[in-house]
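Example: Acyltransferase.
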Amino acid sequence: MERIYSIDYIKFFAIFAVVVIHVFPLDGFAGYFIIDNVARFAVPFFFAASGYFFAQKMKHEDAPFLYFKSYCLKLIKLYLVWLIFYTCYDVVLILLDEVHIAEKLKAYFEQFTLLNLLYYGKGTSGYQLWFLTALIWSTIAVYVFFRFKQITLLFLISFCLNLIGLLGQAYTMFIKFPINSTRDAMFFGLFYTTLGVFFASNSRLSGLNKVSGRTFLGLALIGAVVQPMEGYILDKVLSGSHGEYFFSTILLTAFLFLFALNHKKLGKGLYVTKVGANALGIYIIHVFLLDVFNKFIKFVHLDHLSENFIWNLCYTLFIFTFSYFTYDYLQKIKRNVKQ
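Written out as structure tokens, the predicted fold is:
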């Protein structure tokens, strides 16, 4: 299978955008609103990339089920390992608090419902783990429809579900949605994963190769401008929900992905492309490191610096870099243990 460097190249900027969202304070400065909304393409792009590569492998596998099984088991193992890690971390923090330990532990583990653990990926301080559970369930659905050659049908179904799910995110002013969170597998992850699969498996999209990469990039940049505008209207004018996903997110993600497919060699040989290939590792571990350093900053009474733009920018670069090298070091330890 041909290596697509451009996807890893864009994943570098996507994972950096995720760290920016988590580091910068919500109301730290006026420009954050724009940065926060533009950065919303990141997680949808991760889903699309996962779906694309999964479909590409499935097309060339002699035993598709065995690949599907190994791929899902890999994701499940990854989720369980980090679920246990964040659980242990949270329990240690509760024990160190030394105040009302029993009550806090009871309240903490009450969140460990089957729905939270197996579907929403919630319950621990590792709130970003929802991506893994959403990807697992989305991949299972994709496999079923892929085997029956009904990806186009799944794409239409998931698109409708995503539009419905948006009512529970940014468009809450129009309707009171009965589900508390629609940032999950069914309403969110499934569509973007299927979008990647659709790009990989639909031969009718071959005509898009005639469209120049500059056109797709231009459309993506327009989407990057429209997305914060849509976010501003929904949040400030119509009093909707801040920090969510929008209809323009679909267009931005699709055009950006098509641009990547049009320039597959983009980023080849660059260090940022190598970092982008490890985006999932950075995504998983950066929340832990951010929490540790936030607690240290608060302990030394420097938390007032969060209102400073330069500090937040440098802090973002630090968390991003430290997360990459920490995860890379953990992978080296893992390889040594296996050997």
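The chain is about 70% helix and 0% strand.
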